[in-house]
Amino acid sequence: MSPVDGNGAGGGEDLVIRVQGLRTQFGRHVVHDNLDFSVRRGEVMGLVGGSGTGKSVLLRNIVGLMRPAAGTIDILGERIAAPGGGTADMALLRKRWGMLFQDGALFSSLTVAQNIEVPLAEHTDLPPALRREICELKVALVGLPPEAAHKVPSELSGGMRKRAGLARALALDPEILFLDEPTAGLDPIGAHQFDALLRDLQSALLLTVVMVTHDLDSLYAVCDRVSVLVDKRVKVGTIAELEREPDPWIQDYFLGPRGRAAASAKDALRGGTSGAHSGTGDAPQDTMQG
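Now predict its structure.
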């Protein structure tokens, strides 16, 4: 593979997210430096890295919650960040993506249905009756029982809160779904069920998904490619490709005991046909060359 840009995306590919030359810093502390990152339409992209590498910071830059010190960010063909300022209409653009924050980030005083209705009330002129009908559909879509719609977050389990947050993120039928540690705090069964739900929804709704996670099982179960934040930049590839990357942190992450256990679990589920250890695939694209 001969990448055209720093993340291995050729000019003919349909990119829904493209970050080029990103620099993020807090005072003198530089988090990202000349970072390139791109996501293809319809893929599930995992985003991993050690503590302090700026995974959630990168996500906040992409969705416009932070302004980078340098670089450009384009989402769905619209420029949201550039040295002279972005040109995108953020109010319109935000209708085209949804975000699931850690633990769902639901409004504690509102019921699940009322939480789901918030983006509908803010971004559409739909009548209340139709908004309520959409809320009921979204509750069912994420696998929650109908009665959950009338409960406040404190009355739900951790897994149900995650699903409620996912229902709200899907309220406007987005093209892109951003997830920040979606399985954090869930037991293994709950995490596995959430991974399966996410993959089913991605396939059925043709979503593009960007997922920050520490969960190796989720990476193996859900992600098409993985971007690893190391040395203020990104290396990207399939897990099979990244396993051949010589960087010590990447080696420890994917080939250490937990990585081997996650790979074995996936192999067992697929009858040993997983490509993660098949030895096929290109070398990971290195975006660390300035």
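The radius of gyration is 19 Å.
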